[in-house]
Amino acid sequence: MKIAVLKEIREREHRVAVTPQVAATWVKQGIQVSIESGAGNGSWFSDQQYAEAGATLGSKSEILSGADIVMKINPPTEDEVATLPEKSLLVSLLYHRSNAELVKSLNSRRISAISLDAIPRISRAQSMDVLSSQSNLAGYMAVIKGAGHLDKIFPLLMTAAGTITPARVLIFGVGVAGLQAIATAKRLGAIVEATDVRPETKEQVESLGGKFIEVKGAEVGSEGGYAKEATDEYRAKQREAVNKSLSQADLVITTALVPGRKAPILVDEEQVGMMKPGSVLIDMAAEQGGNCTYTKPYEVVNQNGVRIVGAANMASELPINASELFAKNLIELMKLIAPKAELVLDKNDEIVAGCLICHEGEVLHQG
Fold this sequence. Notes:
The chain is of the alpha/beta class and 367 residues long. It folds into two domains: 2-118 and 319-359, NAD(P)-binding Rossmann-like Domain (Rossmann fold, 3-Layer(aba) Sandwich), CATH 3.40.50.720; 138-317, NAD(P)-binding Rossmann-like Domain (Rossmann fold), CATH 3.40.50. The protein contains twelve helices and 19 strands. The chain has helices spanning 20-28, 47-52, 60-64, 78-83, 100-108, 130-149, 176-187, 202-207, 232-248, 269-274, 319-337, 350-355; strands at 2-5, 32-36, 56-58, 69-71, 89-92, 112-115, 157-159, 162-164, 168-172, 191-195, 211-212, 222-223, 226-227, 251-254, 280-283, 300-303, 306-310, 356-359, 362-363. The strands form four sheets. Strands 3-2-1-4-5-6-18-19 form an eight-stranded mixed sheet, with helices on both faces. Strands 11-10-9-14-15-17-16 form a seven-stranded mixed sheet, sandwiched between helices. β16 and β17 (306-310) form a beta hairpin. α6 (130-149) runs parallel beside α7 (176-187) and α6 runs antiparallel to α11. The protein is elongated, with a radius of gyration of 22 Å.
């Protein structure tokens, strides 16, 4: 069996899907691993390290020749799809709900595709969950990025010249990224508050030392490991509950995403007007339209003294750790779909059934 690992061509992408350490593991199992030359450069993994791991290196066309499985991080472009071997298996993020044409293109060439973002959020699949591993790093990076833009320190500081009060941080969304943001901000000494549509997250927030802002009487809950889309009633009540904290916050971090849809607006023009001059908003939903009305991906917008940071693809800003975790997720996935170095796609398995988007000329999950 041959695995080909492509170099990421997306702008500002520094990660690689497979690290030399993981490549070496597969080589020892008798799997041929081919890496596109330079694929690991952005993550500081050299071609020499891959060669020492037993992988072969070459151009895109060379590594794809005869490949059974093709691995990458981001969804392929149409040009990339045209280069993939027919009847091979693509393993990458696909976001198939938003990329129906991409799925159609893959299926037309009888390319099977596993969408890593569609791996079910169940206990048995936790070790394969790339969204969680990457979101964990992104949540950490959101706080560090916020600290970089904020013109004050996070912790309480008592000096001979007087006392500096701790920064106040408000986090919308208590998923993986939000929890890591809470933990990181607390470690830096901030006062942290958080809100979420799922009332069951209150205990998690409090266990990390944060204060949970409850929205009573309009709870939304979760489904399939994701927060359900909030109702208009909930948004109105949430707005009322968080506005006082929003007006006092030095740093606001928003993390709310709805799979396959535009991100919900959590901080509108009026609410930005309530925020203090000098405060910072890190919008982690920038790539899906943003949780703030003024958000622009990869840009910092100054709105009446409030800096709104369109934080996109933040895991890529920590490419060494992000690549290591992504590759380890793939190792666990390979244990399921190729347990004896031979590809076995069991559609009766809950995990495979959830993330196998198209197979042998059939689209299994529509967008």
